[in-house]
Design brief:
Number of domains: 2
CATH topology of the largest domain: Arc Repressor Mutant, subunit A
Largest sheet: 3 strands, antiparallel
Oligomer: single chain
Shape: elongated
Structural class: alpha+beta
Number of strands: 5
Order of helices and strands: HEHEHHEHHEE
CATH architecture of the largest domain: Orthogonal Bundle
Strand order of the largest sheet: 3-5-4
Distance between the termini: 41 Å
Strand content: 5-15%
Radius of gyration: 18 Å
CATH class of the largest domain: Mainly Alpha
């Protein structure tokens, strides 16, 4: 049975990510993403979701003519920001022991709230590969941190 372009793209994203498909790396969202994942699971090309994402099955690797990577123990480091940019300043703020609230980031970088949320979600998580943890502090503000 032939694969759709979306299914092929998802399998390729998984191969590029040590055999695990992370939905946040896909351009698909919502119902479209769910339909593609369900179709791939029905074809036995990907397995059930784990904390890291959807692992490729042996059949999925075969279908894409790829070999399983034995280097899954190596942790790839996120990309680095250019020196002197606001992204670099944001990364420094989030690397602090106490992290940073949206208000602190807005003040330090002279940004609006939606810009802060957007760069954390789009640039840091999706493009640069950082894992961002969030929790509420005692005053109820959301605190962002770069997770180890």
């Amino acid at each position: 049975m032939p694969l759709t372009k979306a299914q092929t793209n998802i399998l390729q994203l998984a191969i590029d990510n040590e055999g695990i498909f992370n939905p946040s790396t896909s351009n698909l969202r919502g119902g479209a993403l769910n339909k593609v994942i369900t179709a791939l699971q029905n074809k036995k090309l990907i397995k059930s979701q784990t904390k890291k994402g959807y692992p490729l099955s042996d059949l999925g690797f075969e279908r894409m003519d790829a070999k399983k990577s034995n280097t899954t123990t190596e942790k790839t480091l996120p990309a680095e920001a250019r020196k002197g940019t606001k992204t670099e300043k944001l990364i420094k703020l989030l690397n602090r022991k106490n992290g940073a609230t949206n208000a602190q980031i807005q003040s330090a970088l002279n940004w609006l709230p939606h810009s802060v949320r957007g760069i954390i979600s789009g640039t840091l998580k999706k493009k640069m590969g950082f894992t961002i943890s969030t929790e509420k502090n005692k005053s109820g503000d959301l605190v962002y941190r770069i997770a180890d």
